[in-house]
Here is the input.
Amino acid sequence: MTNAKLTLTDGSEVVFKPTITVQDNFLDEDYFKHLQSLVFSKEFPWSMGSVLDNAPIGDIANEVQFVHLAYHDRARIMSDFFPNLQSMFQTMSLFSCSKVKLNVLQRQEKIIEHGFHVDFPEAPLGNLTSILYMNTNNGYTKFQTGKKVESVENRLVTFPVHFPHTGSTNTCDAKVRCVMNINWSKAFGSDNYTNFEWNQPKELM
Here is the structure.
């Protein structure tokens, strides 16, 4: 795989070989269906946000998506949905979580790629981004190397947090494309637990 280059805040550059790991049927089927039923319920709270910060004004396909910020460590945000993810984090061997956000994009008449970006540019080197696909559709995640990962429900793709990638819209019968983005670091050895309290104060419902 082609090496990737990261420019640090001091102007120095780090070259690394990005590893993209795809895991199908990642979660137990009943557990995944439980998460899916919560996310697609009429009661699940969504907010309107932008796909890219620099999207052209009037470009609705690139401007608008619906988001649910489940967790953000610096903003100390935790939604009511977040505790449902504990079993998934154990399966991931997650140690530290920086951010968890769900995105929903509406179906479009053509496939639109939104532009390469990283989800958490201030994350430490060695951290990871994972994307859990919440439904099956003909959208995808594309990496700067050209590799594409199709949206298949209960598929998890994991890669270095600083590796640029882009999502896309879908054009199939699925009304939306829904993904969960997790920015995290992995536990090693016996330290298979998260470093936050599940009952910490919530600032977002």
